[in-house]
Amino acid sequence: MQSTTYNDNKQVIKKTLKLQKILDEKNNLASLLDEHDLISIGNRAVEGFEEDLASRKPWEDDLKTWTELALQISTEKTYPWPNAANIKYPMLSTASMQFAARAYPTLVPSNGSIVKCRVTGYDPTGEKASRAERISKHMSYQLLCEMDDWEEDMDRLLICLPIAGTCFKKTYWQQSKQKNCSKLVFPKVLVVNYFANSLDDAERVTEILTQSRRKVKEMQNQKLYLDIKLNDPVTSDKTQTQSVNDAFSNSSNDDDTTPYTILEQHTFLDLDGDGYSEPYIVTVEQDSHKVLRIVPRYTADDVTVNEQNKVIMIEPIQYYTKYSFIPNPDGGFYDIGFGRLLGPLNKSANTIINQLVDAGSLSNLQSGFIGRGLRIKMGETRFVPGEWKAVNATGDDIKKQVFPLPVREPSDVLFKLLDLLLKSGKELASVAEIFVGKMPGQNTPATTTMATIEQGMKVFTSVYKRVYRALASEFKKLYKLNRTYSNPQEYIAVLDLQIGQEDYQGPEDDIYPGADPTAVSSQEKQAKIQAVMQLLQLGTIDPMAVTMLYLEAHEIPNPEKLMRQPQPQQDPKMEAIKAKAQVDQQKAQIDMMQAKHKMELEGASKEQELRMKAAMVQQELQAKQMQAVLDAKNAQATQAMKMQMEQQAAQQKMGVQAQQTRMNLATQAATHSQNMQHQSEMNKQQQKQTPKGTKTR
To answer: Left (φ > 0), alpha (ψ -120 to 50) or beta: where does 72 sit?
Structure first.
C-alpha cells in the first residue's frame, strides 16, 4: 500500500510537457512523466474519488435497499417467532418490468429503424435525403449487428433505470476491435460528486473497474498500461463500492483470480504548466495509488486559443451519457426512480402481508394451555388428520383442563389497508389495469377507454421523453466516432447502400432516435396517423409522406421498398437558366449555319454564278409557260361553263313557253265547254215554253 499522501489542493507537475507533444503522443502519457509526478497524480486521483464517494453515501445506502426490494431478497426471521412469514411483494419489480415492456419495443422497433437523420435546408436534388437515408440505415446496422451487446445492454438499462433512477452508457472507439462500443455502466460503479450539476460540470468522473491479473498483464503487454509491478489485490472491505468484489471476499491474497480494483478517472491536469488544467483520463490501481495510464480526452480541434496563441478553453470529449428517470428534487446528481417512490409503499405492503399470513397461521394451528391433571394415554398432544387419542379423563374434565389461546382471524382492516397501498403503488407507477391485460367491460364506451389510457400514460410519457433525449445524445457520440475513425477508403455495403466518411461531415444535431417521442404505443401511433390521413382530402399535405408514416406506425419492414420513388423537384431558377442556355445554344447554331452558307456563296466561281442565273432564267421561263397553259385551260373552262349556263337558260325558257301554251289550251277548252252547256240549257227552256200540238218549223 503506498503511504504517500497528497493534501495540497493545487496540482504541481515538475516535468511539464508541451501541448503539441501531448497531442502528438499516441501512446501512454504516463511514460513521459517522472515518478514524483505519477505519485502526486495517483494520490490526488484516489483522494478525489474517496471524496466523491463519501458525498453520495446516503444515496448508496438507499440504492442497496431498493435493490433488495426489487430482487425480493428475504432473510430468516426470528420475530415474532423463528421462521415467521417473510414474503416480499413484487411491487417494485412489477413497475420496472411494465416500464421496460412499454419502452423497449418503442425505442428498439422490430423493423430495425433505430436511428434517424434529419434533412435540414433546401434539397432540390434530393442529395441530402439520400445521405440521411444512408446514415440512418448504416448507424442502425452498427447498433444491431456490429455492436454485439448494444441491444442487450439497452434491455438491461430499461429494467434497472426505473429502480435506481439513473443509469449510464459509455461510448468510445474500441481500438483492439476497430469498431464503436457503447456499453452499460451501472450507477453503483460510476462515482460522481453528489452535488455536481451534470457530467459536463463535474470535476471528476470515476468508473470502478475490476480487472483480473491476466487482463492487467494483457494491457501492459499492449503498452496500454505502464509495465510496473503491482501488489497483490486487497480483498478487505475498503469502500462502499466493494460490493462488486463481494464474491471474492473470502479469497486469499495468493489467489490469482482475485481482481484488481482499477479507477478510471476522467479529470483535469495541468501537464503543460501553463496554469490551465486540460482534460485527461487517469487510470489508477486503487490499493497502491499507482498510475497505469494517462491519455488526453481532447483533440487539436477542441483547443481554443487567443491572439497571443494562449489556450483559453478546451472542450473535453464526453464519453458518458446519463439516462434519467425522474430529476432529483433536491438537486443532487443522482436522480430518483421507483425505488425512491415505491420503496416505502413496498415495505409497508410486505409488513401487512406477513402479518396476515402469520395471523392465518395462528388461526389454523391453534395453541393454548393444558392442565397438569389431564393424562393422555398414548401419543403426544399434537394431532395429525384422522387421528384419535385415548385419555384417562371424561369430556368434562378435558374441557376444564384445555384452554385454547384466543386468536383472532386476519383483520379486515389489514386487507383494506393492503388494497389501498397496492392501488397507490399502481397509480404512482402508472400501471393501470388496462396496461396489464385487464380491459374494461364490454359496455364501457370507447371514449372512456381512451381517456383511461391517456391518463395512465402521462407519467410514463414524461419519463419516456427523458430516455429519448439521452438516447439522442448517445447517437450523436456514435456519429462523431464515425466521423473521426471511419476509413475514407473503405466503403461499407449496408442494405444495398454505399457509405463513406464524407457522409458523416454534417452536423451531429441532425441525428435523433427513430422512435416517436410523443407516441409510446402502437395504438397511439396509429391513432395519430388516422387523424393525419383525414387531412389528405384537403390536398395540403404530401400523400407519400403520410403513406410512409402509416407503414412505419404499423411496423411494416422496409417500407421504403413499397413506395414509388418521387421525382425530384426542379428549381425554377435553374429551369430558367437551362432554358436561356438552350436558346443561346440554338442562336449560336443558327449563326454558324448562316456564316457557313455565306462563305459557300462567296467561295463559288463565276461559272457557278452564271449557271445559277441561267437556271433561274430557265425556271422563270418554265414558270411563265406553265402559267400560260394554266391561263388557256382556265379560259376554256370558263367558255365551257358559259355555254353550259346559256344552254340551261334556253332550256328553262322553252319550258316556260310550253307550259304557257298548255295553260292557254286548257283555258280555251274550258270556255268552249261552258258555252256548249249554256246553249243546251237554253234549248231546253225553249222547248218547255212551246204549246203542245204546235209544230215547229
So the answer is: left
Question: Averaged over 397-405, what is the pLDDT?
Answer: 78
Q: Which residues contact 611 (CB under 8 A, 6 or more apart)?
A: none
Question: The pTM is what?
Answer: 0.70
Per-domain residue ranges for the chain?
Answer: 1-58+201-317
Using DSSP, state whether 264 is helix, strand or coil. strand
Length of the chain, please?
Answer: 697
Instruction: Name the grid cell of 92.
Output: 417494485
Q: Are 299 and 284 in contact (CB under 8 A)?
A: no
Report how far apart, in Å, the C-alpha atoms of 89 and of each of 76, 354, 422, 557 are.
Answer: 16, 10, 10, 40
Gap between the Cα atoms of 615 and 622, Å rounded: 10
CA atoms of 634 and 628, how far apart (whole Å): 10
Contact between 108 and 154 (Cβ < 8 Å): yes
Q: Which is nearest to 150 in space by CA: 174, 176, 118? A: 174
Q: What angle do CA 268, 274, 276 make, to 5 degrees?
A: 35
Q: Which three cell numbers stand for residue 198?
A: 451534470
HEC string of 289-334 equals: CEEEEEEECCCHHHEEECCCCCEEEECCCCCEEEEECECCCCCCCC
All cell numbers assigned to 292: 497505469
446 phi, psi to nearest 5 deg: -65, -35
Least confident of 291-295, 456-460, 609-613: 456-460
pLDDT digits (tens, 9 = 90+) for 326-383: 999 999 999 999 999 999 999 999 999 988 988 888 887 777 777 777 766 655 667 6
Unique residue bearing C-alpha cell 434539397: 123
Name the 3-class secondary structure at 8.
Answer: coil
Which residues make Cβ contacts (< 8 Å) with residue 52, sequence separation at least 6? 191, 192, 193, 194, 204, 206
C-alpha triplet 509, 106, 323: angle, nearest 5° = 55
Compute the distance between CA of residue 271 and CA of residue 277 in angstroms, rounded to an integer. Answer: 7
> Of the candidates 139, 197, 128, 131, which has an alpha carbon nearest to the alpha carbon of residue 476?
139
* C-alpha–C-alpha distance, residues 444 and 426, integer Å: 21
CA distance 654 to 672: 27
CA torsion, ordered 227, 233, 238, 244, to nearest 10 deg: 100
Q: Are 233 and 259 in contact (CB under 8 A)?
A: yes
Say how far apart CA 137 and CA 143 lie, in whole Å. 10
Question: Which residues sit opposite 209 in a β-bridge?
Answer: 262
Helix (H, G, I), strand (E, B) or coil at 170: strand
Cβ contact 518:527 at 8 Å: no
